[in-house]
Amino acid sequence: MLNIQDLHAGVDNKEILKGLNLEIKPGEMHAVMGRNGSGKSTLSNVITGREGFHISKGNIEYKGQSIIEWSPEKRALAGLFMSFQYPVVMPGVNNTYFLKAALNAKLKHHGKQELDAAGFLKLIKEKLTEVDMDTSYLQRAVNEGFSGGEKKRNEILQMLTLEPELAILDETDSGLDIDALKIIADGVNRYRNKERSFLVITHYQRLLKYIEPDIVHVLIDGKFVKSGGKELAIELEEKGYSWLES
Amino acid sequence: MSNEQQIIDSNLNKEYEYGFVTNIESETIPPGLNEDVIRIISQKKDEPEWLLEWRLKAYRRWTKMKDPDWAKVKYPNIDYQSISYYSAPKKKELSSLDEVDPQLLETYNKLGIPLEEQKMLSGVAVDAVFDSVSIATTFKDELKKAGVIFCSFSEAVKDYPELVQKYLGTVVPYTDNYFATLNSAVFTDGSFVYIPKGVRCPMELSTYFRINEANTGQFERTLIIADEGSHVSYLEGCTAPMRDENQLHAAVVELVAHKDSTIKYSTVQNWYPGHPETGAGGIYNFVTKRGTCLEENSRISWTQVETGSAVTWKYPSCILKGDNSVGEFYSVAVTNNHQQADTGTKMIHLGKNTKSTIISKGISAGKGQQTYRGEVKIMKGAEQARNFSQCDSILIGSDCGAHTFPYIDVRNPTAQMEHEATTSNIGEDQLFYCNQRGISSEDAVSMIVNGFCKEVFKELPMEFAVEATKLMEVTLEGSVG
């Protein structure tokens, strides 16, 4: 699904990722753990193709194709999704309108019939119950006046609606109370299947209690210093990161 | 960032769709302005003596006035002697739409304004002004049944002289300002509306203005009177051909709201903005619009969507004289490429418990420069007056500018004033968020801008809100790619 080879990347001529390798197979859930400044958000931004991040060496392949020259929306349309650490507020832009535009862009891209208003409403109402949000959401503007928990649930709602094949969850657990965390974890777990892959980027092991990763990577100074099973996350929680630093 | 700029630049070239010229025989008087020209205009329109006198007084006054230079717009000096002050399609005295030159009807069809009865479906009565002359007013008979007068200004002068004489110049006197005074001297046509006591106008009234001839100016005058307890919603739209030289549009609109009446005046202005790259040509839109809430519980509401013109100078205002009267100003102004706009409003509170609301949304893209200029004045006798002002600007790209000049003058301590203002860029984060959901930058900008303008668009009559949304897309198409 995703294959990253010897990736060197950064911002403003500053190299942040220094030779990172990662292979995610269909159906796998990978977790990347690391402290602030280790390169976690650079990794998610580089994979999704955000403006201002440059790749100096290495490659990112998605479903066997190099995507490093692709625009962010081309990557998105191809099935790559990111749940934002800080979901963006779009004043006056209705959630229904936004999400319908996104879904129809994707359907159109794949040569499928676009949904009309009624069809979309039916779909979105089903999805809303999955993240425990009520229909008042539909009249509100994107993330405007949303609590931290609502914003993150909105991200997951968008994921469930757009049905990506690879979803990056960037610090999705930050700022969530335990109830919201469970709702989100349930949503993600229901969405998991043999074809869909995940990359969970997180500080803490908290979320990983509810979403069990297949593989955990520890990111220090732009490189994975250790990879292992889910027990590695628990070990990190107990011992911190310093024992892995050289 | 450089890539973002490139994206922004790459798409700045959507063409103006209404730039065609209609090939029609016109009667145009030679360029130049003097008392004789004014006499010719007045004579051609078969006007009463008092109106000619009024025009001449205005003209004499105007010759002693100077162009205003306080607005934050730049344009070369206008040579008023090189403009023709009267142009009319040749055929005159039409008794029905069937007699209208088919070329003209075609023009309005191209503009998406069918004058025929199909407008019945949407319940809109239309008056069309081509160059200086009103071509056709639809639904006159239906309106007449309700007692509503909706006709061209020239007809009103002939058929309802007492009403015209009573109200003309009472809101915008002929001495008011340079452009209004010029208009008073040379105005050629426009629309006239009178809603009698207690009548709720059964349909939207609408005027479409079209400048066609080269080297002509358009000076129309609109007068709307809402008598006691009446209600009217009025919309104007404007387009012009693409020409390399600038054309002057100096209109005056006067609104008079009597006791318990409401006037809602909406404008979708789409004059030719000039060449996208060189900035050549385009309309100078120097317009004076003002309404008086003459008596208690009256309400005047201005809604404007300003997307066209090379230079805009326009401040639709309300004089809140009657107690408990309400003034509102909702504005979306877009400046793209080389467009400049200095626009805003004045709310003058005279009566007790008067209330005003100002919502101004400015969008600048390309090399566009935009200024919001607003004045709120609470006079001594205006006990418990309230104003809420909100002025937001959004910038697309880094070569444009937004400026805000709010003037507040409070002479009564019981006044409550609120003012909010924001300026923001269309954020890289917003664009990326949309892109990451598979939405193109172009669609994202249109979505963000429409979201930004929502508070104003919802004030427009339904079908025009749709038109405005589309117009914004066209105007901004290419401002981000």
| Overall geometry of chain B | globular
Calculate Rg of chain B over CA atoms.
22 Å
If you average the pLDDT of chain B, what whole number results?
81
Helix content of chain B: 10-25%
Tell me about the largest β-sheet of chain B.
11 strands, mixed
In DSSP terms, counting alpha (H) and pi (I) runs of 4 or more, how many helices of chain A? 7
Low-pLDDT runs of 5+ residues of chain A are: none
Radius of gyration of chain A: 18 Å
> What topology, given as strand order, has the largest sheet of chain A?
6-9-10-3-11-12
Flag low-confidence runs of chain B.
1-14, 116-123
Protein traits:
heterodimer, A: 246 residues, alpha/beta, Rossmann fold, six-stranded mixed β-sheet, four-stranded antiparallel β-sheet, B: 481 residues, eleven-stranded mixed β-sheet, ten-stranded mixed β-sheet, 24% helix, globular, disordered N terminus
How is this fold's topology laid out?
The complex is a heterodimer of chains A (246) and B (481).
Chain A lengths: L1 E10 L2 E11 L4 E6 L5 H9 L4 E10 L2 E2 L5 H6 L2 E4 L6 E5 H15 L7 H14 L10 E2 L5 H15 L3 E5 L7 H14 L5 E6 L12 E6 L2 E6 L2 H9 L7
Parallel strand pairs in A: 3-10, 3-11, 6-9, 9-10
Antiparallel strand pairs in A: 1-2, 1-4, 4-5, 7-8, 11-12
Helix pairs in contact in A: 5-6
Chain B lengths: L1 H9 L15 E3 L6 H10 L4 H15 L23 E3 L12 H9 L8 H4 L1 E7 L2 E5 L2 H6 L3 E4 H7 L1 H7 L10 H9 L4 E5 L8 E7 L10 E6 L4 E9 L6 E4 L2 E6 L4 E8 L12 E12 L5 E8 L4 E4 L2 E4 L5 E10 L4 E10 L5 E11 L3 E10 L7 E11 L4 E10 L5 E10 L2 H9 L4 H17 L4 H15 L5
Parallel strand pairs in B: 3-7, 6-8, 7-9, 8-11, 9-12, 10-13, 11-13, 12-14, 13-15, 13-16, 14-17, 15-18, 16-18, 17-19, 18-20, 19-21, 20-22, 21-23
Antiparallel strand pairs in B: 1-2, 3-4, 5-6
Helix pairs in contact in B: 2-3, 3-9, 7-8, 10-11, 11-12
